Amino acid sequence: MYDRISQMEPLIPGRISGLEDLAGKVVARSAALVGQLHPESQRPVVELLRLINSYYSNLIEGHSTHPVDIERAMHNDYAAEPAKRDLQLESLAHINCQKTVEEWLLREPDLNVADSGFICRVHKQLYAQLPDELRRVKNEDTGEAIEVIGGELRQREIRVGSHIGPLAAALPAFLDRFAGFYQSDAHHGLMPIIAVAASHHRLMWIHPFLDGNGRVTRLYTDACFRRLPLPGYGLWNVSRGLARRRDDYMAALSLGDAPRRNDYDGRGNLSSEGLAQFCSFFLEVCLDQIDYMHGLLQLDSLLDRIRGYVQLRGAKVIPPPKPGLPTLKPEAAYMLQEALLRGEVTRGDIVRVSGMAERTGRMLLGQLLDEGLLVSSMPKGPVRLALPTFVAGYLFPDLYPVQVLR
Question: Is residue 121 part of a domain?
Answer without folding.
Answer: yes
